[in-house]
């Protein structure tokens, strides 16, 4: 008689709970220096920018670069594990006093002083599940900015997800075990689901699901128009021409009038 297969226990854990220590390795292909250069270029005519809030700062890769560029930086992220990794990096960089880090939701976190610039980069907006949540974030960012302050975000479009996230699978192994990643994109709901599976033993798995909503140009334009920001620009992230249907990812640059 065949032996009964052992039951596998699958535990669902919150986004970044296990992934946080791997995040920088996962993002190894990203040139953060270029992103910082892009942002500094967008605001180059505004010499009054001295303070920055990195909304959804992750492990502080951008925050550290902006602090080195001379800005006073605060970072907020909803994941305590990502803020934990950010703290280690900020301390190791000798920037403990220059960068304030806090766990919180970028849609309602409060700060005592207004900011000159708020950034929300590398899919931060796509983690917001619907246009209503993006609207709440735009409204809150507006309230946190000084007059003439800037909000700069990037957006992953349905085109990028169609091209790269239909049935994507990757295995990362290291001495602590690593993970399996499976990403799939549903063109109908425009939701990309990524499940990272961590195997603690052959019968105990931890599953970390990340849900991201892709937004197209018309949706983002409508969200900008519905926001209190009266000036905005949406440009392709590769060549900065006005974004169009062929843009896989774009920058949204909003200014508080
Ligand atoms: C793909 S990571 C980007 C991190 C960082 N900006 C970077 O460029 O490396 C997305 C981040 O958004 C954070 N996040 C998602 N929803 C959030 C929210 N409502 N408020 C604050 N952070 C949030 C996640 O915890 C995660 O660290």
Describe this protein with a few key phrases:
257 residues, alpha/beta, Rossmann fold, 2 domains, 7-stranded mixed beta sheet, 5-stranded mixed beta sheet, globular, binds S-adenosylmethionine
State the CATH architecture of the largest domain. 3-Layer(aba) Sandwich
Structural class: alpha/beta
Residue runs with pLDDT of under 50 for 5 or more positions: none
- The CATH topology annotation of the largest domain reads as Rossmann fold
Could you name the CATH homologous superfamily of the largest domain? Vaccinia Virus protein VP39
**Average residue-wise pLDDT:** 96
Q: Tell me the fraction of residues in β-strands, as a range.
A: 25-35%
Beta strands, count:
12
Question: Cα-atom Rg, whole angstroms?
Answer: 19 Å
Largest sheet: 7 strands, mixed
The tally of helices reads: 7
Largest sheet, order of strands side by side? 4-3-2-5-6-12-11
Distance between the termini: 76 Å
CATH class of the largest domain: Alpha Beta
What small molecules does this complex bind?
A: S-adenosylmethionine
Question: What overall form do the CA principal axes indicate?
Answer: globular
The helix/strand order is EHHEHEHEEHEHEEEEHEE
The domain count comes to 2
Helix content: 25-40%
